[in-house]
Amino acid sequence: METNIGKHILIIDDDLGISEVIKIILQDGGYKTTVINNGFNIVKIVKKLKPDLILLDVWMSGIDGRDVAVLLRSEKKTSKIPIILISALSNTEEIAKEINADGFLSKPFDISELMAIVKQSLLF
Amino acid sequence: MLLPNIQSWNQNIQRKFSIPEYLSHSNSIFIELSIALLSISFILVVNFLLKPIKELVLSPYLLSILPVVFSSWYSGFRAGFIAAFLSALTTVYFFINPKLALSNISSDHVFVGLLIFTEGIIINILINLQQKWLHAADDEASRLSEEIKIYKTVDEEAEKNLDLWREDKEKLEALNKKITNILESITDAFFALDNDGKFVYYNKQAENLLEIGRQNIIGKSVWDEFPEIIDSEFYQKYFRAVATKEPIIFEKYYSPLKKYFEIHAYPSSEGLSVYFNDITRRKKIEDKLRISINEQKQLDRVKDEFIGTASHELKTPVTTIKAFTQLLQKILSKNDNPSVILYLNKMAFQVNRLKGLINDLMDVSKMQSGKIEYIYKNFEVNELVKETTEDIQAATSTHKIIIEGKAGCMFYGDRYRIRQVLNNIITNAIKYSPKADKIIIKESCNQDEITIEVKDFGIGIPAQETKKIFGKFYRIPNKGERFEGMGLGLHISSEIIKHHKGKILVKSKEGAGSKFVITLPAKSKELKIKNPDNKYGNEYRKTYLNN
């Protein structure tokens, strides 16, 4: 697990509270994080940041996380980056399948659940 | 009558003048010659016998005619001819002077011979003519007799047929009356159209419904009387029924009368029989119901949307609070002040309660829209009961949870959801028995089913309420005590058990506690697996119940 330490995780969530707490938890776990509170120009940003993992919210103001995922999957340089869907929607699992995400996390989640899924996603 | 008289007359003639069969109308010249010779011989003998007086009473000329008459009558013209010739010859030979002198034939001989011969021939012709006339009359009489027989037969047949026809007519009239009575007494309106679309029957109910008397419609065309239906659905259905010879049933709004009709059209070779009735009232009720159902659906949709949105919006801050609480617990775990840890634990407990309530709301929302997903796998029931009980016991100091028996069998279902049910039932048992100190769980398993019973010694459920407790947002009527919760736990539990083809029942007595009995099918491996290859699995899905 030590090999994951220092990996770069991009958090895309419009809720400042959640994005901040995720950032703290992950940094506490030894990860490097970047937070984006909207999905605009996402491909350009991702291309530039080259994160190892993306934590993506679904229901954001102004943009749908599903569209963001589709855009990222359609670009060659970003298509291989694993995406974990994080949502408070009742059908998070369905949406994750629909956009071919690598995993999902339903809100509210435990710190342990967040850490487990992040570690697991970074293994591949 | 003329014809029978002719016949009888003819029969009399035949009886009087009948001759032996072998003689009558024979074509044999030998017989004819024989008759002529016999008759001539006979007359000659008579002539000689009567010789002493004949000159007084008879002439040989007169007697010479008799063989001709006899021969002609019995053997026809040729025999008569021969007899006339022989009669002339014998008369001349035997009775004309000089008698018996062939060598001295005088002109007297020739004259008398020719005279007798001519006379014989004339008589012969007359007799033959008469005979021919008699035969013709006989033939005509026979023909007429045959015709009479035929007429009589035909007459008898006609009489019989007339009787049958009268009988059939009476039967038909009786049947027709019966059918008419039926058609007039039925509650349906009825009319019959012939193949030209003309009304041939129209009952009283039809008069009432269509508001036209039968005297104004019988014999008239449906298209003339109801021109507005041309090119309408009725028009199309009418022709389809007639063309396919198959009955058609349909409902139609008839705008001139502002009525809805249910129409049954039965085609036949005679035309079309149409039964119909007024369904306007039913239609109006249906419309109202439809509107009501649509409104209800609309309300349900709005409610679901509200629950979904509210859950999402509530979860977002809860996620943050929960995460920060956990972070604080981690950071302050080694704090010397015990109150800090206690308060943080209480905070974490309340956050989890809130999370549970929100999850219940979301589950109900998902159940309503049929979007809840079950992940099936084999698990040991006994282990699940033990694990759930231990987790609840760890958080409960007021009650002792006792497990009796052991369900030593596997169940194929969604472990997470079954645990959710057990958790709901056991926590309810604790919640609703504040004055008791124990909960008894009994588990058993046989070939057919797995049974889990949860018994408490609490406030119980009033008898009239037991059927309602699995409904949404149900709360036991408040009797001074206040129990937390939204009334969704039992509803969700019931839905989950139903999904696993199981049953959940309650036996309760007010003031004496309740017993919830969950039964699940033991052969649940045969249940259809909704999502057998979920790559997401439930390794990411951890129960919130143990938090």
Return the string of H and E elements of chain B: HHHHHHEEHHHEEEHHEHEEHEEHEE
Give the N-to-C terminal Cα separation of chain A.
12 Å
Q: Identify the overall geometry of chain B.
A: rod-shaped
**Average pLDDT reading of chain A:** 89
Percent range for β-strand residues of chain B: 5-15%
Which word captures the global form of chain A?
globular
User: Largest beta sheet of chain B, briefly?
Assistant: 5 strands, antiparallel
Number of strands of chain B: 12
Task: State the fourth-level CATH superfamily of chain A.
Answer: Response regulator
Give the spatial strand order of the biggest sheet of chain A.
2-1-3-6-7
Can you give the helix content of chain B as a percent range?
A: 55-70%
Largest interface: A-B, 32 and 30 residues
Mean pLDDT of chain B: 81
CATH topology (fold) name of the largest domain in chain B: Heat Shock Protein 90
Unreliable stretches of chain A: none
Total count of helical runs of at least 4 residues of chain A: 5
Number of domains of chain A: 1
